[in-house]
Amino acid sequence: MYKLLKAQREFLEVPHDYTLDVAVYQGGYGSGKTFSGSLLGILLALKFPRIRGLVGAQTYTLVRDTTLQTYFEHLENFGFVRGVDYDWSSSLQTLTFKNGSEILFRHFDEPNKLKSLNLGFVEIEEMSDVPYDTFKMLLSRMRQKVKKDWKGFKYRIFGHTNPEMQRGWVYKTFVENPAPNYRLITAPTTENIYLPEGYCDELKKLYDEQYYNIFVLAQNGVYNNGLVVKDFTNENIRDISYQPDMDLHVSCDFNVDPMCWVLAHKTDDKVFYFDEIAMENTTTAKACDEICRRYPEHKGRIIINGDASGDNRSCTSEYTNYVIIKKRFLHWGYDVDICIKAFNPPIKNRVTAFNSKVRSANGEICLFVDKKCEKLLYNIYNLKYVEGSSKIDIPTYHQIKQSKELKFLSHPFDAASYLVDFYWPIGI
């Protein structure tokens, strides 16, 4: 039925005689990671009657919307009929097969709740997002009693993931010092012959070069020494003139201390940050007034972008931040539009969109910053990931007390990236 890719076949087959096989399918976008993991789970359930498997990710949303749906697609492709060949219990979140096998679908946010399970296999979605301690706990659950009719059985833990943006625990465990029964299967997107024609070429246009190497070519490596913004050079810095007849984009991050907004012009494919608002212990209305003070003769529209949470009411006002902004600018006689998303995207989506404008994999530069944007430039040069993770390193209260400048880390970047993600989003 399926004609598997070389990497997928390597992932499914076990080349050693150890009783436990631990494998990770590390691939680029569209390389068949979830397809392969869910296919292996079904094959194990069919081959070994009464086996119990666990499928999970750090969040249940990911399990439900991605992994579980791929299981259902496989079952449909196999011609299996619900109620005849298998059953699905929404209340128990469990697939059961007529041979007695069952597969549990869970999140790993509370790993202690999984400690009572005795399992024959575990599948981990987005393995690099799961803490190492959770992975070690799951290893300890590989102790379901082996049945007499399970010929050739091996306990199996298998995961699938994009390469880590830092050399985290997956890299250290499967690349730097792997055990003999630990396997890393690398699957570049470019090797998937079933993708639409030109798919990888389009990704190369969207992503900066290093991001393309990691998330399309599936290459390991340190990603710009942990900096969030990649490949920003002097070519991205320009003297940008404010244009009173053009639309003025104001993108907002609603932190009170400091409140950080960026001001920009844009074209169809480029963005130009020419000024910023970075005020301590202030209000939304005062930030609006500061813009009106600086640019009293603006003739174009003012378009407000930014944090979607600013559309929620606060406990101190009957109005949302965006209502306050619109009322304030209308009071000063400006034409105002609010252009925000219904909800904030994941941070990694904003980071990817921003970096793709800084410099695409084809070398095209579409994001420019004026030297007046001191706090935004400070973020570009200093905002980093927590070592060994994909989480942005936000300064603690204690660190900010030691160095006041640290309070401006993350907020200006958030403001700037909301704008880019609104107009040039990249799905991940």
- Radius of gyration over C-alpha positions, nearest whole angstrom: 25 Å
Number of helices: 13
Beta-strand portion reads 15-25%
Chain-averaged pLDDT: 91
How would you describe what is shown here?
- The protein has helices spanning 6-12, 33-47, 60-77, 132-139, 169-176, 199-206, 209-215, 284-294, 321-331, 347-358, 374-382, 397-402, 411-423; strands at 20-27, 52-57, 86-89, 94-97, 102-107, 121-125, 155-161, 182-187, 248-253, 259-266, 271-279, 302-306, 336-338, 367-369.
- The protein is of the alpha/beta class and 428 residues long.
- The strands form 2 sheets. An 8-stranded mixed sheet has the order 3-4-5-2-6-7-1-8, sandwiched between helices. A 6-stranded mixed sheet has the order 13-12-9-10-11-14.
List key phrases describing it.
Nucleotidyltransferase, domain 5; 428 residues; 8-stranded mixed β-sheet; 6-stranded mixed β-sheet; Rossmann fold; 13 helices; alpha/beta; elongated
Task: Give the gist of this structure.
The protein is an alpha/beta fold and 428 residues long. It has 13 helices and 14 strands. It folds into two domains: 210 residues, Rossmann fold; 190 residues, 2-Layer Sandwich (Nucleotidyltransferase, domain 5).
